[in-house]
Amino acid sequence: MRLYLVRHGETAYNRDGLGLGVADASLTELGLRQTAAAVERLAGERVDRILTSPLTRASSIARDLAERTGAPLEVRDELIEMDVGETEGLPFAEMRERFPGFLEAWRAPDPSQVAMPGGESLAQVAARLDPLVAELHTLPDESAVVAASHNFVLRLLICRLLGLEVAAFRAFSIDLASLSTLSLRAGQASLRTLNDRFHLDQ
User: Fold this and answer.
1) Residue of 8, 10, 78, 88 marked catalytic
2) pLDDT digit string (tens) for 35-52?
3) Known catalytic residue: 104?
4) Which residues have a Cβ under 8 Å from the Cβ of 163 and sit 6 or more positions away?
5) Which of 12, 45, 146, 165 has its CA 20 to 30 A from that of 177?
6) Residue 93 to residues 49, 88, 195: CA-CA distances in angstroms?
7) How many angstroms separate the CA atoms of 77 and 55, rounded?
8) What's this model's pTM, rounded to 2 decimal places?
9) Pairing of strands 188-196, 179-185
């Protein structure tokens, strides 16, 4: 099975360096162009199913791709971004001032159990992804699935599929509107591309 993981385009939160979790932030003009480029890139591939976070910044890619390909679209709550709680919308400097203990714990080698102030931990996000990981492993070898989601979720989904510890999420980046690809077969996953941005004009 071929799995395409695509992150949403730029929002004002991303542009301005603000904490962003479950807020339904709109795309910027750049984000709209990134979305169009990602859709154009994926429209050239075989797509059987499209899974998406319910948040607009991700579902924009999924809905446009569904229109282009005719593939069925499924809104999946598991793919919503990590709830960053009280850090939603905060610049890093204010976050550091208000939650110094959290940031110290977050910088530890393994922050998997560290919950965002009033929000989720990485371990909680990984746990809600586990049923989806199991489902993906049951799909026919010839199928092709696109999942449109967010930074933390996509990094943790890759970790789960590859059998890596949650703390390994720091080992790679998932940039805005980037594409990563995995192959799943016989209960095993292999990473084919990571953080592909060649379809973007920047």
Assistant:
1) 8
2) 999 999 999 999 999 999
3) no
4) 189
5) 165
6) 41, 13, 28
7) 9
8) 0.97
9) antiparallel
